[in-house]
Amino acid sequence: MSLKLNLKYAGDSAGKEALASMKDEVSAAFGKLKNGTGAGSDYLGWLDLPVNYDKSEFARIKSCAEKIKSDSQALVVLGIGGSYLGARAVIEFVKSNNYNLISKDTPDIYFGGNTLSSYSLAELIKLVEGKDFSINVISKSGTTTETAVAFRVLKKIIEDKYGKEEAAKRIYVTTDKSRGALKALADKENYQTFVVPDDVGGRYSVLTAVGLLPIAVAGIDIDALMSGAAYAREKYASDDSPENDACKYAAVRNLFYRSGRKIELMVSYEPSMLMWNEWLKQLYGESEGKDGKGLFPSSVIFSTDLHSMGQYIQQGERLMFETVIWVNSPIEDVDVPFDSDNGDGLNFLAGKTMHYVNSKAFQGTILAHTDGDVPNIVIELDRQDEYNLGQLIYFFEIVCALSGYILGINPFDQPGVESYKKNMFALLGKPGYEQEKEILEKRFI
Ligand code: PA5
Predict the structure, then answer these.
(1) 139 CA from centroid of ligand 1 (Å)
(2) pLDDT one-digit tens code per residue, 16-42
(3) Where in the sequence numbering do the catalytic residues fall?
């Protein structure tokens, strides 16, 4: 019942000797994490989150999810980056990337506030038209423009529909416990609020109310999700253990990086893991990409993308390695039928399951790509359920932190994200940015 790291296809740079050469660096990184002596150590709350969380808030998440399920056909989740990717990844991973289309007894879930696209917001408005709906607005800082502006628009719509008093009972706010404009508004309007803990950064927050409320509304077992994460917390608790796959994977990522493989391609064979890949890309990209360093995380869904990116991977520049997450038992399977005409010549597959066919594509691709000098790391998962996913989330979070410390950066900050915001505010004419506005506008002439 646990995930397994397989380095058989990772080549010599991830072999026993190479791993042994990293032992001291891994131990030092592990020590920083466990003793809270590394950069960004104010943001280590996620380490113990699977066991050390606010139990009464957890119960309130469940009761609010029940209320939303009973009075809403749709839940609009407004948030960006770490304030939405985790929830969306989990819902699609456990349920389906077609969650809103499948027949179910839980509300549709629409994600907004993660773009400034006018068309996307207009579409969101149309999607909730005529439906009973609730809103969960999520922002740790409480000031993120994408989320705040979408909330302003949706708040007016929900208030016009239900009146201010009833609307207030349908708005759920997840934000800082005391700071920020969103918290002030929530207090003023008496919205139900949930807390993003001070010591948990956005991209590490999926197992807080940030992820858990929308996930619970989708009918996903959040107890099982937390149990899986708690299991992983125990499993990866010591760097002495030869079984510590998190340490090994963190070491291998850095070994590849140092040997010039600067791109990590996250691979899955399940379309329902597309948003999982997006979550992973944010986790790795925002954590590691700084100080002129860091692996560039990218992702593909196979076999789909073997027909678009496969050519490059097989024969293009040798810049990358792949990390494949393979799920042993699919959520559902389909048999390939016998066809007496056999016009397509596929009767050799009759009676086989689609998952069997997928597994042969996986094996064939690993061999082809390693033959083409693209090393492969394989992470095997028993099944696509809450318990396994809880493990996977914790595994990747701890790998990310360890990897970042080995790389020599602070895996918990994101100073670079501010640059575009500063320019955008100046160009939009936000008060206080007058001087920057003048300078920036000249650069467009
Ligand atoms: O990981 C992070 O910290 C970021 O991706 C944030 O989650 C994102 O920028 C949204 O910030 P906020 O929750 O403050 O609106």
Answers:
(1) 7
(2) 999 999 999 999 999 999 999 999 999
(3) 286, 307, 421
